[in-house]
Amino acid sequence: MNWYPWLNNSYRQIISQHQAQRAHHALLIQALPGMGDDALVWGIGRWLMCRQPDGLKSCGSCHACQLMQAGTHPDWYRLEAEKGKSALGIDAVRSVTEKLYHHSQQGGAKVVWLPDAGQLTEAAANALLKTLEEPPQNTWFLLSCHEPSRLLATLRSRCLQWHLAPPDEMQSLNWLQKQCAAGLNERTAALRLSSGAPAAALMLLEEKNWQQRQLVCQALPAAIQGDLLSLLPALNHDDAARRIGWICSLLVDAVKWQQGGGAWISNVDCQALVMQIASLLPATAIDASLRQWLTCRDRLLNVVAVNRELLLTDQLLSWEAILHPHATDLTG
């Protein structure tokens, strides 16, 4: 598992709390995708399991460390939804929490990791809450969540919330420069489109992903001035929600440009496109467009069994009515 330099400070602070016997038994880590919270949790877990830690580091040689490295430590529990499912149910939680009240099989700590606490159903969260209120001795809970506000308030209140904030932009750009051959504008755009999460930006810069973004950007000008349905082939893919996000970022950038905030746009590698949108569309049309696209994206992500192609087609027709209202009136 990759370790990232921006994790060092959080790791030192958390392990120092354990060394001082002041650590909270349940740590809720808030982090954006691509911040490496899984690596941070893994590092903390290895230290907790290690029987002979060397300061802030696990020794790497004791039996517990060897089991962790092999992924077979019996007192390390990973709680997540089954493959193909999005919800983590009560049965899985009960199965793990019942084991926590027995002696640890290796005589050390017991650690429960929830890679995505947002998967918990309400019943599962309540079942976990009972154990969080009175945890067994030497038992630790490590929870990750992109949006802790979506969790039950009672669950959040039993945890120490830890925000894994994105590093300084210049630090992230320097790190990206060492990882890939992309130019400064491309690295900056990828980083800002990833909300500052460096590992997510690096993934976006991979050739296949970057080409997909370029395809959307290249198709947009002609679609806005002509037939918006021509955008459908560029959007109708499994990652349609991400592609909608790229359109939204361009619309937000166009507003920034109109207001004299060109220095703060995200799509710095597509400045000409941002300028074009800003000159073609009034602020009211951009605002209405942005609201529509965000609603479409929300439905795409949250409506069960949604017909993606039909939803996108309807959205493009609705966008046509905003951008070319007179043409819509004539055809009607």
Textual characterization of the structure:
- It is a single chain.
- With 332 residues, this protein is of the alpha/beta class.
- The chain folds into 2 domains: 158 residues, Rossmann fold (3-Layer(aba) Sandwich); 118 residues, Zinc Finger, Delta Prime, domain 3, CATH 1.20.272.10.
- The chain is 55% helix and 7% strand.
- It is built from 16 helices and 5 strands.
- A 5-stranded parallel beta sheet has the order 2-3-4-1-5, covered by helices on one side.
- Strand 3, helix 5 and strand 4 form a beta-alpha-beta unit.
- Helix 7 crosses helix 9, helix 8 packs across helix 9 and helix 14 runs antiparallel to helix 15.
- The C terminus is likely disordered.
- DNA polymerase III is a complex, multichain enzyme responsible for most of the replicative synthesis in bacteria. This DNA polymerase also exhibits 3' to 5' exonuclease activity.
- It is an enzyme of class 2 (transferase).
- Pfam families: DNA_pol3_delta2 (PF13177), DNApol3-delta_C (PF09115), HolB_lid (PF21500).
SSE blueprint and pairings:
Blueprint: H1 8-19, E1 26-30, H2 37-49, H3 63-70, E2 76-78, H4 90-100, E3 110-114, H5 122-133, E4 139-145, H6 153-157, E5 160-163, H7 169-179, H8 184-193, H9 198-204, H10 207-225, H11 232-235, H12 240-258, H13 271-280, H14 283-302, H15 308-323, H16 325-331
Parallel strand pairs: 1-4, 1-5, 2-3, 3-4
Helix pairs in contact: 1-2, 4-5, 7-8, 7-9, 8-9, 12-13, 12-14, 14-15, 15-16
